[in-house]
Amino acid sequence: MSKITIGILTASDKGSRGEREDKSHDAIVETLSALDAEVVWYQIVPDEKDIITEKLIFLADKKQVDLVLTTGGTGLSPRDVTPEATVAVIEKAVPGIAEAMRAESLKKTPAGMLSRSVAGIRKRTLIINLPGSPKGAQECLEAVLSALPHAIEVMRGEVGDHIRPELKTRTTGQPDNQTTSNPESRTTRQPDNQQKIKTKTKKCVFVVFSL
Fold first, then answer.
1. Number of domains in the chain
2. 31, 83, 106, 135: which has the highest count of C-beta atoms within 10 A?
């Protein structure tokens, strides 16, 4: 599998004005070091649905990156519109990714259920919404990181079947539903079978009387 290409889009009013350092981007890049991946595009934009939508379309249609990670704008604030912008451009939803991230967040805080993050596919690009906080972005990305290479392979058409990702590297061997014959087990069973035969054998005694 070739290197995964990634675009990072930060949605933040303050960040886009230079009033806040984008530490979430740094946390994402650090987490991505576990993959054979390269961040080829990065930008901070304000929390404006039309602008976010435009950037997502550009990354999927023009830049054709494998993966877009957005950070910020997934909460309940009136200015949080990243999920709406994402839903407007994706062609297929991948709800399991967002569900896994929320489940991981709930282990840390009840506020994890308030995340409105979504994930989906546009053409051959997977788009995932991450929280705006550095810690939240890192924890959520770590929760789904192991499934991303397989997802990218499927979208690229490099995997044409439905094998589980963890089974792909298994070597061909004896099927799991067959067990190896054990001569010792046969020898231990043989006396039992003979004993059963012996117990079924009955002796017949004939008595002859003389008159």
1. 1
2. 83
